[in-house]
Design brief:
mainly beta
């Protein structure tokens, strides 16, 4: 799990090869719930996720030694 720089969103990687972005804002009614569909594209378990410092992109790493970069707003 990783949090965006402003701590309003979180990103998680899963065994099912997906990445999910969720709301982490305590004031939001969707606290901890996914925002949109999971991000798909890895071919193995996602073991590492992180937001870039500007919050616009997400990086994810998989057990098959691949890294993907996603635009945080659209996947």
């Amino acid at each position: 799990v990783s949090f965006s720089p402003d701590e309003s969103r979180m990103v998680s990687g899963y065994l099912d090869k997906t990445v999910a972005v969720g709301c982490s804002d305590d004031a939001a009614s969707s606290h901890g719930q996914p925002l949109g569909e999971p991000l798909r594209g890895h071919t193995n378990t996602v073991s590492l996720v992180s937001f870039l410092l500007d919050g616009t992109r997400i990086t994810s790493g998989s057990w098959n030694r691949t890294v993907r970069v996603w635009y945080a707003a659209i996947g």
